[in-house]
Amino acid sequence: VQLQASGGGSVQAGGSLRLSCASSGRTFSNNGMGWFRQAPGKEREFVAAIGRGGPPAYYADSVRGRFTISRDIAKGTVYLQMNSLKPEDTAIYYCAGRRSASIATNARTYDYWGQGTQVTVSS
Fold this sequence. Notes:
single chain, mainly beta, globular
């Protein structure tokens, strides 16, 4: 079972990126999914999460209003639309999946992790 995050890159402040998380080995259409990030020298932190049924979603205070998590049930793919990016959003972004269908913000409750995709925002 693998999760593959993609869509990272380098943008200027105020720009946008859309991250995707695809799965192989199993589908995650019925599972809670989340995005986390880790900046250099910092601990991994929660960004956004969505349950099996879709919205409402949970967001970290630092990204609420700028980021949107969504999912395509048919494709088994989860997305993170990131707008109005700031230099402090620079990090490696990881998608994660739960065995449970419910939504969660605690990284320790996630069972599957992708390899991460780098997002760099310059000022």
